[in-house]
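Researcher: We're teaching a course module on how sequence relates to structure. For the next exercise, students receive a sequence and then see the predicted structure as tokens, so they can try to spot secondary structure elements on their own. Here is the exercise chain.
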Amino acid sequence: MKTPAIALAALLVGTVTLEAPAQMRPEIRPFAGAYIPTGQQRDLFRAHSMFGGQAALEIAPFFHVLGSFGWVPGQTKYAVADREVNIFTYDVGAEVNGLVPLYGDWLLKPFAGIGLGARSYAYKADALQDRTCASGYGAVGTEFQLDRLALRAEARDYVYCFKAPVIGVKSKTRYDVGLSLGLAYHIW
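Model: And here is the predicted structure for the students to work with:
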């Protein structure tokens, strides 16, 4: 049982210590924050906590490509016995950022980004059907970076089609906001 774990750890350590190309640096970005329904979504869902992560690749000091996954263990306002819903968001995107040297080795990296993906709603109540639909986002935020580690704050404005979990209701375009704080670990 210990042998696979030791082999996996050795593989991960070996991967982390490999030299990357001069300008390409992978990053891992866990985050936590708040899901805030806006407009008509406020009538259907409650604001709730949000958790997730991103994997990014720094192509140049001012440009990143990334993939994101987010999870909201939320509650719906539909009139059903079990109102729990898991909301999953997954997307790919790009960010451009500034680079402002601060005191010592600290860097301020304000950024803006865009992306496309999908959103899924997995309802606990049997009366509601699970649904998935396309989504897109615009993001703004900043990082405070020291060496390989950065504190990251991000606001995302999502637009997506929403398929109601009840039969006979048409898809509609909806909006909501995600606010998050997290870390960015620059692997190389």
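Model: If you want an answer key for the exercise: The helical segments are 2-17. The domain at 21-186 is CATH 2.40.160.20 (Porin).
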